[in-house]
Structures are given as C-alpha cells and as structure tokens.
Amino acid sequence: MMSSLSPDGTNAPAHVLRLVFWETTVACNLECVHCRRLEVARELAKSDLTHDEGRRLIEQIAEVGSPILVFSGGEPLMRPDLFDLAAHARHKGLRIALASNGTLINPALAARIASAGFERVSVSLDGACAQTHDEFRRQIGSFDLANNALRMLKAAGVATQLNCTIARHNQHELPAVLRLGETLGADAVHYFLLVPVGCGEQIADDEMLSAREIEARLDELHELAQRTSLEIKATCAPHYYRIVRQKAARARREGEPPPPVRHGHHPMTKGCLAGTAVCFVSHQGNVFPCGYLPVSAGNVRTESFADIWNNSDVFRKLRDVALLTGKCGACEYRNVCGGCRARAFYQYGDFLDEEPFCAYEPARNRASRPAP
Q1: Residue 193: half-sphere exposure toward Cβ, Cα within 13 Å
Q2: Which alpha helices (DSSP H) does 104-235 contain, by range?
Q3: What is the pLDDT of residues 102-135, one digit of tens each?
Q4: Which region holds residue 233: left if phi is over 0, alpha if psi is between -120 and 50, else beta?
Q5: How large is the C-alpha radius of gyration of the chain?
Q6: Dihedral sign of CA atoms 339, 342, 345, 350 in order
Q7: Is 41 exposed, middle or buried, given 0-12, 13-18 or 19+ CB atoms closer than 10 A?
Q8: What is residue 269's three-state secondary structure?
Q9: Rounded alpha-carbon distances, angstroms, from residue 39 to 28, 86, 218
Q10: Does pTM surpass 0.90?
Q11: What does the mean pLDDT of the chain come to?
C-alpha cells in the first residue's frame, strides 16, 4: 500500500481503498426517474474510456491496493468489451462485482457472468411489486425481468444483491422488499436513501423523505436486520450508524445485550465512506468521492489513479472530520456517521457542510441552548 501525508501532516498510510465503482458507460436501456445522470443515452458514448484506457485504469487501481472493482453504468452489460476488462481485472488480482438493472440478463449471460468470476451482482428493485418498480424505472415489465435475472444468476451460482432506493413512493414497502429478497434467494438487500443529483434533483420535492421520515425508516431497517439472515445495509444513509450506536448504548444502560450488528459494514466503520474508502470513476475518467458527489478529484486520463487517491485535495478534506461544519462538525457521532457529503453539497454547495436530512441534534448544541 502506498503512503501519503495524513490530514494532520504526519507520514501515515493512505486510506485503505475498499471499493472502486467504475462507470464503464453511460449507455442504458432504461430511463429511471431517480438516475444520478441527466444525459442518459441508449448507445455507448464516444467519451467513454476506451478499452486500452480501461485496462490502464485497472492496472493503476491494482497498484494502489486490492479493492473490489464494481463495473457499473449506465448498464455495464451494454459495453461489448466488459468481459475482457473483467478478465484483466481478475488477472491483476482484483475482486470484481457487477451492478446491473438486470433486464438484459438471460440464462446464457448469467452463465457467462459466473464464469467471468464476478463475485456478486447487484440488481435494482425499487419496490416490492411491478407497479411500484416499473413506474420508477419507466419501463413496463422491468420488475419481472429483474426478478428473473436474480433467479438466473442464483441458478448459475452467482451471489446476488437487491438494491432498493428508498423514496416517498415506496417507503412503506421496505419489509416487503426484504421478503422478496428472501424469496429470490438473494444474499443481501441494500437500501439506498435518495440523493438529489441528476434526475434525482428533479424529483426531490416529491420523492425526498423528510429528516423525521428518514429517521423512522432507518430505525425500521435496524429492526428488519435483526429478523433476517440476509445482509442488510443502509447506503447513502450514514445516520444509520449513529442509530446503531444509540440503540447499543440504550441497551447497555438498561442492562440488556446490544442487538447484533448485521448491517453489511464492519461495526467500527464510518457511515459515509466517500473519498475515505470508496471512490467512483466516471465514464470520462473523472474520479469522484462517490457517484453522487459531483466534485472531481482528478482525471485518470491526465493523472495517475494513485496520485489522485493519495494526494487529491478533495479527498484530503473528506478524510479530516475536523473540517466538517454546521451540526455535523459539532456532532459527537461525526466519526461514525459523517453525514452525507453529497446531500450537503446539493443543499449548500459545500460538501463539508452539515447533512441537511438528519433529525439528530448534537449534544453540544443542546447543551449550549438557553434554558427555558
């Protein structure tokens, strides 16, 4: 692992890179209302990283560490050299995963995905029934196609994951989505809080949950996690990790054992991993902290991936929680939550500002409030 200066100026190991999401193409056969992109295309874009550029990216990622490389899009299965690139990643020692909408997968393609060595395939299901999902995905029949894809992948021996974006239209279907995952034999269900970027910004007024509603849904997820053997993970929802710790502290005060941690991440991890353990490489080679925070840390067409990951000013700031402002900066849970930096950027134009969709009031703020 390469090293660089830590935020406090000491010579410390660089942050361990755990996940790299590569937007292999913007081409997609769907037009989802919450897509983080505005310029969804039905065909491959000329600005996508070329095959040779993709190989170089893979090689440079492998020089930095051994993260899981997630081939995403758009719809990555529309890229004709996907499996060649996957083979190159495996040759370089990287673990690989695939993020798909599932609608293009048939038995032959499921078998090819398995033989390519993809360790897990995530398929998006934004509701527990066809009406909810298809309306959100803007394609009648996409729910059934996604369900069939998950069944075919399981039959081919590939681990599967359901990705569900929580918004106003489906917030009461969370238990039903989990039951669907169990029925389909999935290994995990990851619930994403809507982030208002791209097309998501256009529907934010109608679909974004309030801070209080988010608190209730995350509390519900914690309860669901205790009742299933599936991996439950709250994504783009760093407040969940505060809730986990609050519940454990409450149990200790009451002399009860804390509920088991089954939320996907290591118990000691932090909620928002953007730029600290995770990054996103766009189809044009821009490196972002995550796919929802449109602040570039550099471009692999002109800089090495290692230099961007280890030395970017954007990543340096994200790795120093002392730079957080607003109530996130004052919060006693800032090291385990950190707030969503993308939603802060959306709301205030500053990714270091406070999470705008959090109902928690830090103890320091409560203590400084004048007595009634």
Answers
A1: 29
A2: 107-116, 130-137, 142-155, 174-183, 199-202, 204-207, 211-225
A3: 989 999 999 999 999 999 999 999 899 999 888 8
A4: beta
A5: 20
A6: positive
A7: middle
A8: coil
A9: 10, 26, 31
A10: no
A11: 87
